[in-house]
Design brief:
263 residues; ProC C-terminal domain-like fold; 2 domains; 8-stranded mixed β-sheet; 12 helices; 53% helix; 15% strand
Length: 263
């Protein structure tokens, strides 16, 4: 039985905990300054630790779900409990493998980048498994662990900024577009509830079609664009405002900012 400890049980930490709770091959332990957050997770089987050090001493895997500026201090606190048999995972944006290896030594480290749909079991995760001390068995276990929570991509760290820009920040782009379409619906006379429900169904259905149809998204888009029809009129208006170019530029800006945080 593998014990996984979480230092920090906020939104993302708790999402991962709830996703792992049904597994029969792990036990879960958590530490957080907010005792109410820990108590809320007790029903799913999370045991509370009295301190980060106690948690690290009792767990095989320690997952850091704290703010990036807190990572070094936390690793210094639990340092005496770390050894080559324990694994440290970090979901802190911008904290590089180089820093993690230095601060967590002698324990091997894994950098993980999740996104917020993990909160409903539909996350997209990037895992950096470049620490040679991990060994293949441990790597395979971690990949399988996160596959139970959503989609997993094993990436070299040099692609983490790209992943952050596309999938890490990506939910905000989707919600931004959803908001705009909802506002258009309200402007056209739909109630806000009607517009919201329609747009939620629109995005859920479209994503399902993209995932299951086997067709490229460009082909799926063309299927909706009848000659001289309503859809092509809308897309032409988007192109006139360079919406596609603005989206690409925004994603590239996100990647640049991710790189700056890492530096």
């Amino acid at each position: 039985m593998t014990c996984i400890g979480f230092i920090g049980v906020g939104n993302m930490g708790s999402a991962i905990i709830r996703g792992l709770a049904p597994r029969g091959d792990v036990t879960l332990m958590g530490y957080d300054l907010n005792s109410a957050s820990l108590a809320a997770l007790a029903p799913v089987g999370l045991r509370a630790a009295a301190s980060p050090r106690e948690l690290a001493e009792g767990c095989d895997i320690v997952l850091l779900a704290v703010k990036p500026h807190q990572v070094k201090a936390v690793l210094e606190e639990i340092g005496p409990a770390l050894n080559p048999g324990r694994t440290v995972l970090s979901i802190a944006a911008g904290v590089t493998m180089k820093k993690l290896v230095k601060w967590a030594d002698p324990a091997p480290v894994v950098r993980v980048m999740p996104n917020t749909p993990a909160m409903v079991g539909a996350g997209v995760f990037a895992l950096c498994l470049e620490d040679d001390r991990l060994g293949q068995e441990r790597k395979d276990f971690l990949v399988a662990l996160f596959q139970g929570l959503g989609q997993v991509h094993v990436l070299p760290e040099k692609l983490f900024d790209a992943f952050t820009a596309v999938a890490g920040s990506g939910p905000a782009y989707v919600f931004y577009f959803m908001e705009a379409v909802i506002e258009a619906g309200v402007t056209l006379g739909l109630t806000r509830q009607q517009a919201t429900e329609m747009v939620q169904g629109l995005f859920t259905g479209s994503a399902k079609l993209a995932a299951e149809s086997g067709q490229h998204v460009s082909v799926l888009r063309e299927m909706v664009c009848s000659p001289a029809g309503t859809t092509i009129a809308a897309l032409n208006a988007f192109d006139k405002k360079a919406v596609r170019a603005a989206i690409v530029k925004g994603v590239l800006k996100s990647a640049k900012r991710s790189q700056e945080l890492g530096d």
